[in-house]
């Protein structure tokens, strides 16, 4: 399983996690955040994640959901 797939699974369980929270969920305590941060920034640049401030002032990672298509009938 790729790191991106692990991140998507974790965000599917609890959307809006910070890089630190994702690091703890995937690796456990005591690991550095850089690997997750780098992957989340890349996924954001590719359009797979939104990274924005949460209400507590920490940057959260949110799965980007496809917009529903509107059809005229």
Task: Give a quick summary of the entry.
This protein has 73 residues and is of the alpha+beta class.
**Largest sheet at a glance?**
2 strands, antiparallel
Query: Level of helix content?
Result: 40-55%
Query: Secondary-structure element order, as H and E?
Result: HHHEE
The overall pLDDT average reads: 93
Question: What is the level-2 CATH architecture name?
Answer: Orthogonal Bundle
Structure classification: alpha+beta
Numbering strands along the chain, what is their spatial order in the largest sheet?
A: 1-2
Uncertain residue segments: none
Percent range for β-strand residues: 5-15%
**How many structural domains in the coordinates?**
1
Secondary-structure map with pairings?
Layout: H1 3-13, H2 19-27, H3 34-45, E1 49-53, E2 59-63
Antiparallel strand pairs: 1-2
Helix pairs in contact: 2-3
Plain-language structure description:
There is one protein chain. With 73 residues, the chain is of the alpha+beta class. It has one domain: Arc Repressor Mutant, subunit A (Orthogonal Bundle). The longest helix is centred in the middle third of the chain and has 12 residues. The chain is elongated, with a radius of gyration of 14 Å.
Can you give keywords for this protein?
Arc Repressor Mutant, subunit A, alpha+beta, two-stranded antiparallel ribbon, 73 residues, 2 strands, 3 helices, 14% strand, single chain
């Amino acid at each position: 399983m790729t790191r991106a797939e692990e991140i998507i699974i974790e965000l599917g369980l609890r959307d809006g996690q910070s890089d630190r929270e994702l690091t703890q969920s995937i690796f456990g305590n005591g690991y550095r955040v850089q690997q997750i941060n780098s992957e989340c920034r890349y996924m954001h640049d590719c359009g797979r994640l939104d990274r924005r401030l949460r209400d507590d002032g920490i940057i959260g990672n949110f799965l980007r959901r496809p917009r529903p298509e509107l059809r005229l009938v």
